[in-house]
Structures are given as structure tokens and as C-alpha cells.
Amino acid sequence: MLASSTRRALASSSPSSTITLPSFLLPAFSSSQSPTKRNFSATTARPSKLGRNPISIPPGVELSIGDLFVKKDVTTYLQQQQRTVTVKGPLGSQELQVPGFVNLDLDQDTRRITLSVQDKDQKKQMEMWGTTWAYLNNFIMGVSEGHTAVLRLVGIGYRATVEPRPEKEDYQGQLFVCLKLGFSHPVELGLPKGMKASAPLPTRVLLEGINKEELMSYAANLRKWRKPEPYKGKGIFINDETIKLKQKKIK
Predict the structure, then answer these.
(1) Do 164 and 175 form a contact (C-beta atoms < 8 A)?
(2) Taking the CB of residue 145, how many other CB atoms lie within 10 A of it?
(3) Residue 141 has pLDDT above 60, yes or no
(4) Planar angle of CA 181, 183, 189, nearest 5 degrees
(5) Closest listed residue to residue 71, CA positions, set 97, 101, 93
(6) Which CATH superfamily is domain 55-144 in?
(7) CB-hemisphere CA count at 13 Å for 221?
């Protein structure tokens, strides 16, 4: 009833007369387009702090970029494009799978490679920009200089040796890191292929390899047998790892 009477009143009014509406009704009757979408943050998209820096290729290292291919993944129906980057150096070779939206610009004259992404507004691409840069940089350093990790054994009676175990070898000539950590049996863990280990001191283990991820994963498997405890400071420490000591519990 009210709506029909309002329409009749508007139709009977003369063209010369003007109708003024309250301010709170103006947005409903306005014929302009919908307002622009406002972002949650007013800051502009910034490039990756790591990804925007070019990577220098040292002498003796060769880097080749493969063509795009579709990776088949049973966990998703989406087609994921990737390319293979092969890094060869004096210490060996490694292959890195790079997402298709990461662009690689290789300059042979200056021996530098620059990474960029196709769309900086997508979160996934921004995340993989710096991650891919870090992986590629570790691969280049691994085949040219190699990666190392030092394990420190802190505790009374803790000892480490590197010995062969022919009855447990996964491949010919495999060495095992043998740790005495206060258990009734020694802890023996075989070295992966391509990794080296030595014990310059009874409480030190030096690990060497070209794959940093594999190297630190092996060091973590050794560390989990005696994680550093905060009361006496005993345990296995990796590189410059430290722990803050707590006061002794008093009952």
C-alpha cells in the first residue's frame, strides 16, 4: 500500500518540480556503478627480498634450464607446469624442479641468473619466489664448495666414531656414524650415498655433502637421540646451536 501510493505521488508530480530525498536514501537510488573494491592493506605489493637479488654463478659451475612440462600429481586434478634446472659443478650435479610461474633469466656474459614471478598479486607465487631462490642458491653452493655440519657431543662418556659395518651396508663401502650416548647399545646410523663423515675429535662429528637439505636432515636424525636438555646442558648440538639453562628444580 505504501509503495503503490508513493509511486502514484511521483507519477502525478509535475516535471518542473524537484523531489529531494533524505541523505540516507541516496545510495539506494543512485544509478552509479558499485564502489571499487578496497583491499585489506593499503600497501603496494613488494618484491621478495631474496628473489629480487641475482645469483652469481661461480667459475666451473654450469647451469641449464629445461623446457616446461606438466607434472602429474594424484592429489589434485589441476595441471601443474614445472621445469627442470640442472646444476653441475666440480663436486657433482643436482636437479631442481622449479614451478612454471617462476621465470629464470640466465645471463651468460655476467654469469648471473635472475628470478621473477608472473603475478605478484598471488600469494602462492610470492611464497615460491624466495623459496626457489634459496633452493637454487644452495644447489649452486653445494656443487661448487659443498655444505658442512658440525655435531658437538656434550656429556660425560659421550663419544663418536665413523666405522664400516659390512653386515649392514646398503651400498658397497658405506660408513656408519657410531655414537655412545649412555644407552646399553651404541647408536649406528648409515651415511647416505654421496655424503662424507669424519670424527676429528671423540666429541665432534663433521658431515660433508652437496645437498644441504639431505645433510641437515641426517644431522637432525642423529640429534634426536640426545636432544639438548636445559638443566645440565647435555646433548647433541648442531653447528652454533645453544640452549638457555634453567635453574634446578627444588622440591
Answers:
(1) yes
(2) 14
(3) yes
(4) 65
(5) 97
(6) Ribosomal protein L6 (3.90.930.12)
(7) 15
